[in-house]
Design goal:
about 160 residues, mainly beta, Lipocalin, globular, disordered N terminus
């Protein structure tokens, strides 16, 4: 009787084995692109990006790094030479907001906000493209923008 009980217990354990083991996600799920910026790790924002603004002929270079004081980013935007105008550099700081938008404040002098960015991650771009609207704080004018992570291999 005791032996029958042990064999029954062994069979029960074998039958329930998968219930107690953790299933590993399929490889495709582990490498899937984020559908929302909320799924994007903050570190994915670090580095160099290209910003293009509708109606402007040249692109700008955005560099972001970890913000030292909170869970966000800080960095710079360098707008290139246009005609006889020299390049300008502004400071950026922001994060991914609770609605999943990239939210950046821009400051020309490091104190007052000169521009505000609000961009949505493009799900089909695998964490490498945000599209949104940049607003000039001085006059409330807006420009659509595209922020793109350049391909490091040049392909």
């Amino acid at each position: 009787m005791k032996r029958a009980w042990i064999v029954s217990l062994a069979w029960a354990c074998l039958a329930c084995g998968p219930v107690f083991t953790q299933d590993k996600p399929p490889a495709a799920a582990a490498t899937a692109c984020p559908a929302s910026a909320l799924d994007l790790p903050l570190e994915a924002l670090f580095g160099t990006w290209e910003a293009r603004f509708e109606g402007l002929p040249s692109s700008a270079t955005v560099r972001l790094e970890k913000h030292p004081d909170y869970a966000g980013v800080r960095g710079t935007i360098t707008r290139g030479v246009s005609g006889d105008t020299a390049a300008s550099i502004a400071q950026l700081a922001g994060d991914i907001d609770q609605d999943g938008y990239l939210s950046l404040d821009e400051s020309m002098d490091g104190h007052a906000i000169s521009g505000v960015w609000l961009g949505e991650l493009q799900a089909d771009a695998c964490g490498k493209v945000f599209k949104g609207v940049w607003r000039n704080a001085a006059d409330d004018s807006t420009r659509p923008f595209v922020l793109t992570r350049p391909n490091p291999t040049g392909k």
